[in-house]
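[job 4471] stage=fold_predict status=RUNNING
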Amino acid sequence: MLNAIANIMSRVGRGTQTGSPSPAASRPPDSHGRGSRGGRRLVVAKFDSAQTTADNRKHWANADGLSPNAAINPEVRRVLRNRARYEVANNSYAKGIVLTLANDTIGTGPRLQMLTGDAEANARIEDAFEQWSRAVDLPGKLRTMRLSRAESGEAFALLINNPGIASAGSPVSLDLKLIEADQVCTPLLRRGRNDEIDGIALDEWGNPSTYRVLKRHPGDSGVFRTPIDDLTAYDTFPASSVVHYFRPDRPGQLRGIPDITPALPLFAQLRRYTLATIAAAETAANFAAVIYTDAPANGEADPLEPMDEVELEQRLATVLPGGWKLGQVHAEQPTTTFGEFKREILNEIARCLNMPFNVAAGNSSGYNYASGRLDHQVYYKSIRVEQHHLQLAVLDRILKAWLNEAVLVEGLLPQSLRTIAATLPEHAWFWDGVEHVDPAKEANAQATRLANHTTTLAAEFARQGRDWEQELRQRAKELTLMNELGLALATAPAAAPATNAPAEDTDPADQVDEETASASHR
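[job 4471] inference complete, writing structure tokens
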């Protein structure tokens, strides 16, 4: 009997044994994945997460099926930008986290290495680009763009001609004009078009073709005294002149949201808990003493006015009314869980940025050496991914535009490279290296890798953000001068012989294979 019932139940939603569909299966499921039969709904879904119950209905109430660009419509992005900027401006942890992220990603700025077959041409291009980079403060603008992506979701830069660059020492007048995301938007009269997503006009293949930039920022202080025609005035720039730096999290997404969006409620909770803890401690400290009685209501105690204040003289005894006692308010704040709460919530905040707790908090007191290094492995890998994204989305675009103008400057580039603007030549970008906590261990590991030919000088110098050719040429000059002056080259002390005693300072992180260099070299 039980087997027969089980067979009948198993046919619901998949048909009979002969293959004919059941009535419930013949009806299309509704939006919750459920079919209907005789006014009753039968769940077809096999996943618990697809079930809507009284317990999870409120939790999933805001889940929707909007497209990526509809989900982050202009009003949603405006609210997220304003709240993220407010939090970064007023929360010390938020400010420190985004600054650390920008400093670790950009550092002192990228350095160009050309990899063409002409060594002389490579050197001339690298020197000219470095001179231009200093003139326009490229590292500073890249850091601003990274900060803007963290708190505004995206950053825009216009490739413009700035004659003032010549006064800074660069013959190339190309410049980057940074603009905020608020200015890139679709004017009111053009909204509702299918070929435009909030200031980004698309071609027939869905690629950005032009960008519309308001002449004035919507948040300028004099916006209320400006005629409406001036507020809606905009310029149209071709996509080739606009650098758009953001992280698309969904296919087809054309605008960005702040990197710290998931952490905004957590920042608010951290501030509220901190302020509540301080307020509770201050409230307890403000009451020097309280007068209370153990007598029951209408008992034998002298009558007193509730909340009456009595001034107490210092270092003097006093007589209280009959039946009353003198006591103090015990401060219950900060609680013993206050530090643990801050640690856990900061750890959750930093997770959306792939940042370990000790970097976000600026505090490694609870770490040992191995734990700190292991936590940093994920963080520095994330930084390398961000740097590669910057190379493709920003730096290569800038280098291409710079070469297009540099070839027009007489005598700046070699004659053989005057046609280089047609294609972007082979090149690499160097970033600041990561300092090792124990230089001696790193030097020994580096010598071992070079000795057994598992690495190259190019890869080892790349870890430090340096050009191996420049470093070797500089070292050759130093050795030549030392020989000329009769200076002996100091030799490194011999390594101590290994013992059979176990090493207490063995670092498990040192046994982790080092990541490959961020750029390939010849």
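[job 4471] summary: Residues 8-26, 496-522 have pLDDT under 50 and may be disordered.
[job 4471] exit 0
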